[in-house]
Design brief:
The strands form two sheets. Strands 1-2-3-4 form a four-stranded antiparallel beta sheet, with helices on both faces. β2 and β3 form a beta hairpin. By secondary structure, it is of the alpha+beta class. It has a domain of 111 residues: Aminopeptidase. It has four helices and seven strands, in the order βααβββαβαββ. α1 crosses α2. The relative contact order is 0.17. The structure holds coenzyme A. Coenzyme A binds next to β4, α3 and α4.
Length: 170
């Protein structure tokens, strides 16, 4: 799977952290009522590890980030037994539909697999079809922060590695 854009690791000192964290704040801030933009940036920065869990990756158009995805230990406060999680999958609107999120998901999957994780998780209110296409399976539907979401699971063991996808060139 190839999106055509380089995917880079974002480290905690990267000047891109406020931009990426700002996307997360604008997109999912309602899930954390009362959390300021500065607090979101600090939390996001803490997820920018040097390998394994946690890690953040960005798709780059030159010097400009156009998408992101992360691998984190926890993403659902009452499901600590499930770990790790694919989280913060976001692509700028004008860059969507070109396979960038798919490539970022694959990059995060590789990071989880390299870390020895055979299973990892995500939840989504409305992007189930994207993840199913990438080989994820539905685990449970539930209410979370006032939304109906699906918890999904990816089996990274050799028996579970699923279909590959082809991205349109950007
Ligand atoms: C959801 C989101 C990340 C998808 O990003 P994206 O880069 O457009 O995703 P992709 O291009 O990899 O795939 C999206 C669609 O493009 C199409 N597509 C991608 N590559 C394709 C290809 N090579 N050929 C044909 N279609 C392709 C697919 O039809 C796919 O649709 P699907 O949902 O039916 O599977 C983006 O819309 C977004 O940031 N949304 C807001 C935040 C959000 O909802 N994040 C997910 C939280 S769980």
């Amino acid at each position: 799977m190839e999106s055509g854009l380089p995917l880079v690791r974002i480290d905690a000192l990267s000047p891109l952290v406020p931009t990426l964290a700002g996307w997360a704040h604008d997109q999912w801030g309602h899930l954390h009522p009362g959390r300021s933009r500065a607090a979101t940036i600090a939390t996001f920065r803490a997820d920018c590890g040097s390998s394994g869990v946690p890690s953040v990756f960005a798709a780059m158009d030159g010097e400009r980030p156009v998408g992101m995805a992360s691998l984190v230990a926890d993403d659902m406060s009452d499901r600590c037994e499930l770990t790790p999680w694919l989280a913060s999958v976001f692509v700028l609107p004008e860059w969507r539909g070109r396979g960038i999120a798919s490539a970022l998901v694959r990059r995060v999957e590789q990071e989880a697999e390299d870390g020895g994780h055979e299973l990892f998780y995500l939840y989504t209110p409305d992007q189930q079809s994207l993840y199913r296409r990438l080989g994820w399976e539905d685990v449970e539907e539930r209410e979370y922060h006032g939304e109906t979401v699906t918890i999904m699971r990816r089996d990274l063991s050799p028996r579970g590695l699923g279909p590959s996808v082809t991205a349109r060139p950007v």
